[in-house]
Specification:
The structure holds 5 protein chains of 5 kinds. By secondary structure, chain A is an alpha/beta fold. Helix content of chain A is 45%, strand content 19%. Chain B contains 13 helices and no strands. Classes of the chains: A alpha/beta, B mainly alpha, C mainly alpha, D alpha/beta, E alpha/beta. Bound molecules: adenosine-5'-triphosphate (ATP) (2 copies) and magnesium ion (MG) (2 copies).
Chain lengths: 355, 281, 289, 239, 256
């Protein structure tokens, strides 16, 4: 079973997710499936909304009788769906929903993306440790992802000796950021930390640069989309993306995926797509290793996974709460492309919460 | 009954309460409100907080109704001052104000919403039955109101408040009562929703929700309780029946909405009997 | 300087809003319908501008194309959707309008992709001009200039010309206006054509500003423009401009100073409600146009 | 100028007037009379083009205009003083008059306006007032003035004296007589039967939608039965 | 004169410089029948609006049954026994004729929404409404939608609604306009009948013949001021009244 926001505000990521899911299923089936059985993909649209997700989860569990579910959707939908899967004993992986509650729903629930707070902490660490900058303006978006990441960042900023001059926030519908640009200009920071999706990040970065702001910009994971560079144009040069997706890495699986995705979608894959693909991959791997399709056993095998190569990173493993333990890639935009800049390995910074 | 059916029926019941209560405000009393989602949300948040604090179902439901109607009264008072054709937009404003406020309130979970709302203790089907009972009661209440002298006076106020005043009908108090009653029911619906999802997030109570509710009222036939209840059921189930078309769902939905209103501008009610004239300007 | 910057960015917001809302005002003034699908016409304008500009290599041609497409679309909406519903309560066409918005918005998503579109070349968003220490990009300057021109022209048109008076007479009583040779049908077509063309221009300009158009671009228009036309006194062109600038500036300062308590939309609507409490008739009173 | 032949009109299935026939030549006044609900307003509005015609024809200058829209009829030279005034409430007095003369080029607008103001000085005093806030009688003056701005060849007047003080009724009747002299054709609906009969050339009397009398005003004045049964004139009042 | 049911003290209101009503005072006793006449734009309708509370005066007081109601709402005044008809008719167009009157007849049930909520029965009101409709000559039209009535009948509906309120004082603004001579005579007889049953009447009319016939006292307003007040025939003999109001028709009415 698979649910994703195919319509509504989050439709962009939903579409990428869906294509990635289809590629994953095709690949797995082409390799003969698992234990002699082929995968069947049942997809529903949850509009990234909680009440819709309740329907779709119930439908997947009740009507379609799925045993394994993956969400290619945002937190609100994942949070509403997780308890339902938990109760029904369905192994559930949230590919990129960042809210802590998803995994708290119970032991059947997994997450394949780093939680918001560690992402923010990683950003603070990166700014202080790698860039060696001390004075930051922070711009965050109004949704649970933005808020969670911001909290992580602010919590660690002081520890790392970063002074946050000012915080600004905007809503997902905003495309014009005049007041924020004016504010940042006044702050005159050494560095800017911003969260946002490509559709807000693109205009934001472009307007900051057009407004004459020269300080380096560190962006959150969701900056990661070719569309971001397209919108911001030359202004995107030099923007760092924390927990990015190192898409030019030499890796046959990744190359295959990138090519296939480009063919089906007409644009290159983003991190979101890679995460969804890996969700399927890791689930199938756990099934194989279990040698059975019994959800309880697969769940336990999955929980014990170690050092699994995902498309974006190598997964170290899951912690007690089934949160990922893995290093974070930092990309930088160079000549209109995301290229690998460095990798954060510091386990303490990246440690997910245990409860 | 599968879990899916139960969850669907629960939402149907909640939407019936919402649409019928909006119809009391907009249909009976003529006060167009595009902010019903705010009262729904206020009820949900109030109930969620009370439920977490007390784990007492009746108390939480009452809290939802109370908060819904208090907010409704405030908006009602405000609405008395604005010209009637400004009201629709003012209520949109109420909705955005509500969501904008909640988004920044840590004690309401801000962007994160409130999760781990305790279960009602009735189980999913018990919950659903409770919701349906409340929905039935709401419909009955609405039918009764319309048949009573209050409904009669509502119609007069809706059509011409000044002329109503010359018949000793005090438009102000009627409008306030309509708001208080309609929003109390919306608050109740919110409380039921909180128990249904056990997780609430402000996105569920946004402007689009309000618009959908107004669509139910118009499609049902403004002022017709039964029509509006049917429309609420149909408009909730319809998108489900074509869930399989996935990304074309909204497209088809929008198309059907346009088509239906073009073919039956008087709403479902007008298809059954000749209430067309009542809908004329 | 900071405060001046904020004021300027507020004024640019205000002009953006004014362009988005003015077509809506015209339609509301004429038919008393909350023409929410105006947002879709606006989005159409934005898409056409970008796509045609990219295909032809000239932004100007993009705008011309939008100026052709949007009036056609607006007139079609009037003829096919609203005209048959004119005798019903205004909520009926409003809901139909919302249905159309959903339909068109999703149509754009399916036709043009959920990724949205971007200008291949958009020098206006990149090149900046410094005036007395204030940095504006060319797109912003274009927005300011176009707004001034459009509003001046409309103001003169509605108050100083006979057609303008006829326009308002049609609003007041179409049957009787017809009895004096005012062709209500033509006036309405004209109204929709002009209102939609303005939406088209607004869409193109905002595409330039953002350098990006996605299916939800009209979303903001669909509700915030409503607040603006109400503040402006519903149907008043002058009021719309005043209200837009006012909201723009309030939002600009608001995002900085109370942004952590209320988001931008909530700030705008709070201002709306407070003002309506103080001045129930909006900024310019009940007079149309 | 105007010929109405076998006209039947109404609202959807509701028939308001049946088989009405009359002619109004240039330089003449036809009084269209009858009790409440007789169908006078409906007939006038059908001539203007605002009420559905079920059967029959309306001819203007010999040309069949039954299928023409109201706008086109207005441009041919028909003007209306509608029942219940129906002035443009949110336009000023001046702007109402502008619309009155809308079918014609603006160049003679001033003269015409002066003439209207000469007839109704009150309108001149209140040029800038919103028409909707005027008193009932003032609105009636405006409705008449607005129609005069059109310099019509055919004037349709529904309830001339409605809400006017006696002095103003006299002024308006004099004005109609003068317009007739200038060659205008006038259809007059008027509840003050005596005054209407006194100035009319032809009379058409409707009752419950049917024509019960059609003929000269002279004949009508002599027809006792008609006067008492349909026109509400009692002996006492005629004396 | 017995204790006044309605007393006006120095009422005044102006609109942007135009003094529509200017220092008007008079009192109407119980059971009286007052005529109020005056040129177009004299301020008659404005005065009625001030009495009924649709407008609030700039200065002066309105007393209803001995109580100062200057700042009370229209609904309150109606509850105290005032009723009025509109010069420009305002029926509830989407309701039937009968319902229009039933609603007025049930005004005691609808004064307060909560009381209204507890009541359903309309039998008595319907009976009363039917008899009032017969009284004003609208029998047979009760099932029609008010919006489809011709003007003459709407005028009657206005009166029917006012009567259904069971009022002590009725303010009638041009109830005869749009009626022909005999209809007007019938109507005025009906109003006189209502007056005979003890209801106080204030009648605004341009149909002088009927006003003079029916009213016991006549007040003349011009430019917002009272210029004549007394027994109808005496007032009509006043030179300034005739000049302001009658113009060339003076002779016609002087004979009356
Ligand atoms: N909009 C309408 N819908 C349905 N019936 C109508 C409508 N308007 C008028 N009628 C009906 O048509 C008939 C004729 O009405 P009309 O207004 O033409 O009469 P009239 O002679 O002008 O009366 P009056 O002297 O009272 O103005 C009446 O029976 C009336 O009920
Ligand atoms: N809201 C307003 N704004 C401006 N002037 C007004 C307003 N209301 C009334 N007036 C003016 O006040 C004067 C008195 O009006 P009112 O309606 O009381 O006259 P009336 O005596 O009833 O006349 P009629 O016999 O014509 O009905 C008129 O000249 C009118 O134009
Ligand atoms: Mg008539
Ligand atoms: Mg008057």
């Amino acid at each position: 079973g698979f649910q994703a926001p195919l319509t509504g505000l989050a439709a962009t990521d939903g579409k990428s997710s869906k294509i990635a899911a289809e590629i994953a299923i095709d690949d797995l089936n082409a390799a003969g499936g698992v234990l002699g059985q082929k995968f069947e993909l049942v997809t529903y649209d949850d509009q990234a909304k909680s009440d819709q997700a309740i329907f779709t989860a119930n439908k997947l569990v009740g009507d379609d009788g799925v045993k394994f579910a993956i969400s290619g959707s945002y937190s609100a939908a994942g949070r509403a769906a997780a308890p339902i899967f938990q109760k029904a004993g369905v192994v559930f992986i949230s590919s990129y929903g960042v809210h802590p509650d998803i995994t708290k729903a119970g032991d059947y629930c997994f997450r394949l993306v780093r939680l918001g707070p560690p992402q923010g902490r990683a950003a603070a660490y990166f700014i202080a440790d790698k860039l060696k900058l001390k004075k930051a303006s922070v711009i965050s978006m109004d949704n649970d992802y933005g808020e969670a990441t911001l909290q992580g960042f602010l919590g660690d900023a002081e520890k790392n000796g970063i002074k946050v001059v000012n915080k600004y926030n905007y809503s997902l519908q905003d495309r014009q950021f005049g007041p924020i640009v004016a504010g940042v200009k006044r702050d005159d920071p050494e560095v800017i930390y911003a969260t946002g999706y490509f559709f807000t990040a693109g205009p934001l970065v472009a307007q900051l640069r057009a407004g004459g702001v020269k300080a380096p910009i560190v962006g959150s994971q969701a900056f990661d989309s070719g569309k971001f560079i397209e919108i911001a144009g030359a202004a995107a040069e030099g923007v760092y993306v924390i927990d990015g997706f190192d898409r030019y890495r030499k890796d046959s699986k990744l190359e295959h995926f990138t090519a296939e995705f480009q063919k089906r979608a007409g644009y290159p894959p983003e991190g979101v797509a890679a995460e969804v693909y890996s969700s399927f991959d890791i689930l199938a791997d756990a099934m194989k290793r279990t040698g059975s399709l019994d959800p309880v056993k697969v769940r336990d095998t999955l929980a014990a996974t170690k050092d699994f190569p995902m498309l974006n990173e190598t997964l170290g493993g899951f912690n007690k709460l089934h949160e990922v333990v893995m290093p974070a890639t930092v990309d930088v935009v160079k000549d209109g492309k995301f290229v690998h800049f460095s990798t954060i390995e510091d386990a303490k910074v990246l440690a997910p919460p245990e409860e | 009954m599968s879990a899916y059916t139960i969850s669907l029926l629960s939402i149907v019941g909640i939407n019936v309460i919402l649409a019928v209560s909006l119809n009391i405000i907009s249909g009976f009393c003529g006060q167009i409100s595009l902010g019903h989602g705010a009262f729904y949300g206020a009820g949900a948040y109030a109930a969620a907080l009370v439920a977490i604090a007390t784990r007492n179902l009746p108390l939480a439901l009452i809290a939802g109704m109370l908060v819904g109607s208090v907010l409704g009264l405030i908006v009602g008072f405000a609405s008395l001052r604005v010209r009637s054709d400004f009201l629709a937009v003012t209520t949109i404003g109420i909705n955005f104000l509500f969501t904008g406020f909640v988004r920044k309130q840590g004690w309401l979970g801000a962007e994160m919403g409130i999760s781990s709302i305790p279960a009602s203790g009735l189980g999913a089907s018990g919950n659903m039955i409770m919701i349906e009972l409340f929905a039935a009661a709401t419909i009955a209440l609405s039918l009764y109101v319309n048949a009573s002298w209050m409904g009669f006076a509502f119609r007069a106020v809706a059509e011409d408040e000044d002329a109503a005043a010359t018949l000793a009908i005090n438009g102000i108090s009627y409008k306030l009562v309509a708001f208080a009653l309609g929003t109390a029911l919306a608050g109740l619906a919110g409380a039921l929703y909180a128990y249904f999802t056990q997780f609430i997030n402000v996105d569920a109570f946004d402007f689009i929700t309000s618009v959908m509710l107004m669509a139910m009222v118009v499609i049902g036939g403004i002022g017709s309780t039964v029509g509006v209840a049917i429309a609420a059921i149909v408009l909730t189930l319809l998108p489900e029946t074509f869930r399989f078309i996935n990304e074309y769902r909204l497209l088809v939905f929008g198309g059907l909405l346009v088509l239906f209103i073009s073919l039956a501008p008087g709403g479902l009610a007008s298809l059954f009997h000749g209430t067309r004239t009542r809908l004329r300007r | 300087m900071f405060y001046v910057d904020l004021a300027i960015s507020g004024i640019v917001f205000g002009c953006m809003y004014a362009l988005m809302a003015v077509g809506l005002t015209l339609v509301y003034g004429m038919l008393r319908i909350l023409h929410i699908a105006h947002a879709a016409v606006f989005a159409l304008g934005a898409y056409v501008t970008v796509l045609v500009a990219n295909a032809s290599g000239s932004i100007l041609i993009g705008f011309i194309a939008a100026l052709i497409a949007t009036p056609l679309c607006g007139v079609a909406i009037y003829r096919l959707l609203y005209q048959p519903l004119l005798h019903y309560r205004p909520d009926v066409p409003m809901i139909a309008s919302i249905g159309l918005l959903v339909l068109m918005q999703d149509g754009f998503r399916i036709l043009f992709g959920e990724q949205g579109v971007t200008f291949l070349k958009n020098p206006l968003a990149i090149e900046t001009v410094d005036i007395a220490g204030i940095t504006l990009n060319l797109a912003q300057i274009a927005v300011l200039i176009v707004t001034i021109i459009i509003f001046l022209a409309l103001h003169l048109f509605t108050t100083q010309t006979r057609i303008g008076v006829a326009w308002r007479a049609t609003v007041s009583n179409p049957r009787i206006a017809a009895s004096f040779g005012v062709d209500a049908i033509r006036v309405r077509y004209l109204n929709f054509a002009i209102g939609s063309a303005l939406a088209g221009v607004a869409g193109g300009l905002i595409a330039l500003l953002n350098n990006f158009v996605d299916p939800t671009i009209g979303y903001v228009v669909s509700y915030k423009a409503l607040a603006i036309i109400v503040l402006g006194g519903l149907g008043s062109v002058r009021g719309t401009l005043i209200a837009s600038l006012f909201l723009g500036v309030i939002e600009s300062y608001g995002t900085i100073f109370i942004g952590s308590y209320l988001n931008r939309d909530a700030i705008a609507f709070l201002a709306l409600i407070l003002i309506l409490m103080a001045r129930p008739q909006g900024f310019t009173g009940a007079r149309t146009a | 100028m105007l010929r109405v032949e076998g006209l039947s009109c109404g609202y959807g299935a509701v028939r308001a007037a049946s088989d009405v026939t009359f002619a109004v030549p240039e330089r003449s006044i036809l009084a269209l009379l009858g009790p409440n609900g007789a169908g006078k307003t409906s007939t006038i509005m059908a001539i203007m083009g605002h009420v559905d015609v079920h059967a029959g024809r309306v001819l203007f200058d010999g040309e069949d205009v039954t299928r023409r829209r109201a706008v086109e009829r207005a441009r041919l030279g028909v003007a209306l003083v509608p029942e219940g005034r129906q002035i443009f409430a949110d336009l000023s007095v001046d702007e109402n008059l502008t619309i009155g003369g809308y079918s014609f080029p603006a160049d003679r607008d001033r003269d015409k306006r002066e003439r209207v103001f000469a007839l109704f000085p009150r309108l001149h005093e209140r040029r800038a007032q919103l028409a909707g806030s005027m008193s009932g009688g003032e609105q009636q003056m405006l409705a008449i003035g607005r129609a005069l701005m059109a310099e019509p060849r055919l004037l349709l007047v529904d309830e001339l004296s409605l809400g006017l003080m006696p002095k103003m009724v006299d002024i308006c009747i004099d004005a109609l007589l003068k317009l007739r002299e200038d060659g205008m054709a006038i259809v007059l609906v008027e509840q003050n039967t005596a005054r209407a009969l006194a100035i009319a050339d032809e009379v058409c009397v409707l009752s419950s939608g049917n024509v019960v009398f059609a003929g000269t005003a002279h004949d009508a004045r002599e027809d006792r039965e008609l006067l008492t049964r349909f026109l509400g004139m009692t002996e006492r009042r005629r004396a | 004169m017995n204790a006044p049911v309605l007393a006006l003290h120095n009422l005044a209101i102006s609109f942007g410089g135009v003094a529509a009503v200017d220092d008007v005072s008079f009192a109407i006793g119980r059971g009286d029948f007052f005529g109020l006449i005056g040129p177009n734009g004299a301020g008659k309708t404005t005065l009625i609006r001030l009495i009924s509370g649709i407008l609030t005066p700039n200065s002066g007081r309105v007393e209803l049954l001995g109580e100062d109601v200057t700042h009370r709402s229209t609904a309150t005044r109606v509850r105290r026994g005032l009723a009025l008809t509109h010069q420009i008719v305002r029926p509830f167009r989407t309701m039937s004729v009968l319902d229009n009157v039933v609603l007025a007849a049930g005004h005691m049930r609808t004064v307060d929404p909560l009381r209204a909520l507890l009541q359903m029965d309309r039998h008595a009101e319907r009976e009363r409404a039917m008899s009032i409709l017969r009284q004003v000559g609208l029998a047979g039209a009760e099932t029609k939608l008010a919006g489809s009535l011709p003007l003459g009948q709407l005028k009657r509906l206005e009166i029917a609604r006012a009567l259904a309120l069971d009022p002590t004082v009725v303010l009638l603004d041009e109830p005869l306009a749009g009626l022909n001579n005999s209809e007007a005579a019938e109507q005025i007889d009906m109003i006189a009948g209502v007056n005979a049953s003890g209801v106080t009447i204030l009648l605004v009319e341009h149909n002088l013949e009927e006003v003079i016939r029916a009213s016991r006292r006549l007040i003349v307003l011009a430019n917002g001021r009272v210029i004549g007040d007394g027994v109808p025939h005496d007032v009509m003999r006043q030179q300034d009244v005739r000049a302001a109001y009658l113009g060339e028709s003076v002779e016609t009415y002087a004979a009356g």
